[in-house]
């Protein structure tokens, strides 16, 4: 989940809390995508070199900004650290850790780090989360101390962040042919008591606090929630009914001739579940969600370009991020938050597999023009605003994570193909009613 406690020098906001207030609208009918799914793209040598550099730097973040003991990954770190140095802030995020486990698979595939060291780190991470890290019914707390696992004040037991961690865990289980990794990962997944998080309802609660109990906010309209429902439906030990797939709403959005399913949420909501679950060439009774995200990305670009005072073909993309005022969940369409000309690189990077040509163009153009200020040890900073001479000093784990995964999915399909080797994922999509092909009307 893209919510996080801010550093002490900035206001404290919750990304998911903000998004929960935005809500959804009516259930959408079957919506044909105006723009077809991205065809196979022939990447140029320059494209490959850019993606290679971006991926290698992002994987380096997940290696250096993690604890060798616990495997937990920092929520954020400065982008100008010395080689091998870890940011002194101690807040780890289980979502960043899930992205990190997936990034380690990419790092191994690409040969960025020694195989034996990667396997050792993955095993340490899984052992910590199974045998030493506190949990409730298999769900984990969102923000904890990177070395001790102690909770940060106000942190919740998070259903979506647990799901993001599980996606990374299952990716590692399928990628590494290691009995120890397979056993640890399976035990973590099979321990999760999914019906408990329903809390007597038909949709999942967003979380739980020890004193207050379950959060009132629920996963009830289209966003990054698809992974939660599919992981729960596919559970071999504590499943929920496949009917839960039909309970959440699918609001209809229409913008500049584009029609697609979307909540009133930033663009990342179209990217997260699709980082792992492969929706290409298949649909349920509502939509082909891959093509839906292709359309959403085109609509988002059009939305940005409708503000030519700030955005252009060489500079666009807004997703929940830092900005000069601290943090905001912004984007569109429709307009969300105080859009002020700041650009968020992971908005385009997270859609690389959906709209390769446009996303590659803008990312390469931004690095070429502002790379000295906006590009560092781990790649792009989280956000920047050249006209205001503001460049975020930090990178964020979840934003680096969606960027590296979708870059690799564009290049090789590695994460999709690896994750879908998990039989639970295949069975979940079958139970949810997915079939091959594209919906036509």
Mind summarizing the main beta sheet? 3 strands, antiparallel
Helix fraction?
25-40%
Structural class by secondary-structure content:
alpha+beta
**DSSP summary: helix tally:** 14
Order the strands across the largest sheet as they lie in space. Answer: 1-3-4
Arithmetic mean pLDDT: 92
> Would you identify the regions where 5 or more consecutive residues have pLDDT less than 50?
1-39
Fraction of residues in β-strands: 5-15%
Tell me, what's the shape?
globular
What integer value in Å does the Rg equal?
20 Å
Distance between the termini: 34 Å
Counted beta strands: 18
Textual characterization of the structure:
With 441 residues, the protein is of the alpha+beta class. The protein is 40% helix and 11% strand. The chain has helices spanning 15-22, 45-64, 94-110, 115-131, 159-175, 179-191, 194-198, 226-233, 289-305, 345-349, 356-374, 397-411, 414-419, 423-431, and strands at 73-74, 76-78, 91-93, 143-145, 157-158, 207-209, 213-214, 252-255, 258-261, 282-283, 321-323, 326-328, 375-376, 379-380, 384-385, 390-391, 394-396, 435-436. The strands form eight sheets. The protein has a three-stranded antiparallel beta sheet. Strands 5-6-7 form a three-stranded antiparallel beta sheet. Strands 2-17 form a two-stranded antiparallel ribbon.
């Amino acid at each position: 989940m893209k919510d996080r406690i801010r550093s002490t020098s900035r206001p404290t906001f919750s990304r998911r809390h903000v998004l929960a207030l935005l809500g959804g609208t009516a259930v959408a009918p079957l919506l044909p995508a105006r723009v077809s799914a991205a065809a196979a793209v022939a990447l140029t040598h320059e494209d490959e070199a850019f993606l290679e550099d971006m991926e290698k730097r992002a994987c380096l973040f997940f290696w250096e900004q993690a604890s060798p003991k616990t495997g937990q990954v920092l929520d954020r770190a400065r982008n100008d650290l010395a080689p091998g140095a870890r940011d002194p802030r101690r807040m780890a995020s289980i979502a960043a850790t899930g992205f990190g486990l997936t990034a380690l698979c990419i790092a191994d595939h690409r040969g960025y780090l020694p195989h034996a060291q990667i396997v050792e780190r993955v095993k340490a991470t899984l052992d910590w989360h199974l045998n030493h890290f506190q949990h409730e019914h298999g769900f984990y707390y969102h923000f904890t101390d990177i070395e001790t696992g102690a909770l940060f004040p106000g942190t919740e037991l998070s259903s979506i962040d647990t799901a993001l961690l599980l996606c990374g865990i299952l990716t590692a289980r399928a990628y590494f042919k290691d009995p120890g990794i397979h056993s640890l990962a399976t035990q973590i997944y099979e321990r999760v008591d999914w019906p408990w998080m329903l809390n007597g309802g038909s949709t999942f609660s967003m979380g739980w606090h020890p004193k207050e109990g379950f959060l009132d906010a629920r996963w009830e309209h289209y966003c990054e929630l698809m992974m939660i429902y599919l992981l729960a439906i596919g559970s071999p030990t504590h499943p929920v009914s496949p009917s839960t797939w039909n309970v959440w709403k699918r609001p209809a959005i229409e913008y500049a001739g584009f029609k697609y399913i979307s909540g009133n949420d930033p663009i990342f909501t179209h990217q997260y579940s699709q980082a792992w679950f492969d929706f290409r060439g298949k649909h349920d009774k509502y939509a082909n969600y891959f093509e839906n995200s292709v359309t959403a990305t085109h609509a988002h670009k059009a939305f940005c370009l409708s503000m030519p005072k700030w955005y252009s073909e060489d500079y666009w993309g807004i997703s929940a991020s830092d900005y000069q005022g601290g943090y905001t969940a912004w984007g569109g369409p429709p307009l969300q938050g105080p859009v002020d000309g700041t650009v968020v690189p992971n908005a385009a990077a997270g859609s690389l597999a959906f709209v390769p040509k446009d996303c590659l163009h803008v990312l390469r153009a931004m690095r070429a023009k502002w790379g000295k200020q906006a590009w560092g040890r781990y790649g792009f900073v989280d956000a920047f605003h050249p006209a205001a001479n503001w460049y975020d000093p930090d990178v964020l784990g979840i934003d680096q994570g969606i960027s590296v995964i979708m870059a690799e999915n564009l290049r090789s399909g590695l994460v999709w193909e690896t994750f879908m080797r998990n039989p639970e994922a295949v069975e979940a999509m079958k139970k949810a009613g997915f079939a091959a092909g594209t919906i036509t009307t």
